[in-house]
Amino acid sequence: MLRDDIKTATITSMKAGDKDRTATLRLIGAKIKDRDIEARTGKAPENDDDLVIEVLQKMAKQRRESITMYEDGGRQELADQEKAELAVIEEFLPAMLDEAATKAAIEAIKAEVGAESIKDMGRVMGELKKRHGTELDMGLASGLVKASLS
């Protein structure tokens, strides 16, 4: 399980004395615990790895946005720190589908659902998230679905 891999990596980095990596891994662990608490009251994914991947994807997205903001603001040292954190987070994320594979998945779902207009975007996106949610950049997928249905 992914949760166990993160705990093992945390222990290993602590033993190695890698403070930056340890801090990032502890941050990941804290976010996962926060999400566990939220899941008690709301709807939790059936698979534990899906929950962990969801947390990691959100963290990665936040880091990418921060990197852009820091670089635009001329704060390269902070951008470098965010890049280092992003590298650690991405180690645990599954490989994402590239644009061509995403388009192929969209076309397959579009044909299956019978989607023809932009009105069907919600159905296509819902099915896409259900089948490929952990391996897709939903922002990219949304734009591709919109373009495909227009």
UniProtKB/TrEMBL annotation:
Which stretches are annotated as coiled coil?
none
Organism superkingdom? Bacteria
Q: Where is the signal peptide?
A: none
Q: Name one GO molecular function term.
A: carbon-nitrogen ligase activity, with glutamine as amido-N-donor
One Pfam family assigned to this protein is YqeY
Q: What is this protein called?
A: GatB/YqeY domain-containing protein
